[in-house]
Fold:
Amino acid sequence: MSTMASMPYTLRHTIDTSRTAELVSRALAHVDAHLDEVLDADTLADRAAMSRHHFHRMFKAQVGCSVASYVTWRRLQRACALLISGHEPVLEVALAVGYESAQALAKAMRRELDTTPTAVRRGDIAPWKSLLIPERLPFPATLQAHLDNAEPHTMHVTRFAQLPDGIVALTATARGMIDNNMSRAAQAAFGELAATLAPSGQIQQVRSFMCIVPDDAHGPDDPHCRFVAGMVFGYDMAKDQGESHQPDVVLSGTLAWQTLHAGRYAVFTHIGPYTNLHKTWRSIYVDWLPSSGEQLRDVPPMELCINNPQTTPPEALHTEIWIPLQG
Structure:
């Protein structure tokens, strides 16, 4: 038995979670030191030595907000501090924190803080002042509280699955997150698939309904965040039964054939409304993964819809979350 495996759970979990926190901290340190540069999830994933496909979910689970939201918050915090402590032109402040012009900084301040650079410099009482309160920091206070209260996790893997080679899905893509919810995009993407397949009866051959959300959402309302819906013909992913095939489908709109990444997956079960899925995702990345000893593969995770949301009450919806693992 390895030394790590023989440790009490709470100690092992704290050590493993601390390692995850250390990696996320590298990304946060890079943000603070390079506010005047391009800062996206891919760049920060590289700095944290994490999979690009999983980094934005792990970041949100640890820090409490998306990568884009954190970068915006730090830029505006630094901008406010510079505006009230110095006399540099607004353009110089804007460039120092990663905005291409004074107008771009002003637009961000109006959108996020309902104020302007001029008002901040003048010292008007406004929402921007809360940016400078230490308790507002989402990191490391939130994470440290989590470590201080580490308990055995309640998230358990349902099973380990081996997705075979050659599984293909007919996919459709829609965009738009509204109030942290992708329901409208999901309806549009699955609706496009159904509209294509239903008239010919080909939808009766579908054995798996899956989806991927590949993007880091830029805040709770992101019109560009993608939802990729997929239907697999002939092969039941939940039961590992059947044989995947590609029927003759006329591709139009956003329809495309996509080969799913073969290999080993940890499969988790979520019962309940789709709006609560984020809680299960967070438990996987914060609780289960650090203490599991497993390593992620750099391919996107998936969700598998087991029952039909049109005929199933929200509290009974059954979703599987598939996390790709090495080995």
Q: What stands out?
A: The longest strand covers residues 222-233. Residues 185 and 192 are 11 Å apart (CA to CA).
